[in-house]
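Example record used in the benchmark description.
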Amino acid sequence: MKITKLNLVNFRNYSNLAIKFGDGMNIFVGDNAQGKTNILEAITFLALTKSHRLGVHPNVIMFNKNKAKIKGVVKKDKIISKLEINIQENEKKLYVNQTEIRKVADYISNLNVIVFSPDDLEIIKGSPNVRRNLLNIQLSQISKVYLNIYNEYNKLLRTRNEYLKVLFQNSIADSNYLDIITNKLIEKAIVIYQKRRQYIDLINNNINSYYNDISGENGIVVKYEPNIEFESFESEEIRKTLKHYYKKNYKKELNYGMTLVGPHRDDFSFILNAVNLKFFGSQGQQKTAVLALKLSEISIFDEFLGTKPVLLLDDIFSELDLKKRNRLLKLIHDNIQSIITTTDLKNINKKYLVDAYIYNVKDGKVERK
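Model output (structure tokens):
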């Protein structure tokens, strides 16, 4: 899968921008605060209908404008798709080949992306919600079943939490209704647990190899950590265990007015030679671990969808020392379409730049060198 063209209107600092991408490496060079990351953000938005940036105001519309537009052309094998997102203050409209798509679930996966940015250290350092969000984004791109089940689970979870509050306030309310919701919730939870466990198993097939390629170290694994223990991830075992915990925690859940166990409380961690990198890893080890995770995802997309995603690397060279930069470029050169931002190209092996499309970015203007 490749993105061949991108057009922006009133998006961040771009009033009107048109870019053509090469099939291989595309590098945007410029000082900080010139608009390089905004280009990656626009591609992510076109793929996922939301930004990848943490802690950034969600309004991507240019100051003093009331709407923005992102358009892109995507090529998968011989199929060409024209994607478009029109953004207003409280509304997004999605289009594929000029036909409006009303459900996000029907739009996702027209453009698949893997994003690495400086914010991604939060995948290790941040709260479990950051890590769950990563799993949900990536699984939603490769599995419509997962995306639909996950959305249904969240609706049932809200209903169950609301009804727990009703039961707490009204002792004569019908507890049988809670059982019906709980059983439906469990069936959705089973699929989510199994899909997440499968995804992390697939990550572990490759993450140590990538970690070693970049850093020279070995011994990293990703450990899946549901907030309750299962003897196995067989459907009946998950079903039985969840029913046990819901029965056991009934009074506690009434008091809290919320569901205390389930995949909405999942987590995972990075373990390097039996050490949890969140607590004991250096920043260099943490950066390399997240990057190895992202690279491991490429083959998963290829396996499930028959095509590689677009790799977006934001300010990647400042995150790695010289040796690791060139090791990374060796891994992705000629292997995948990549779109990279950087402040300079110093000390980059020129053999990786020969066929690259290189763009200068300054004050919201982009020119190909």
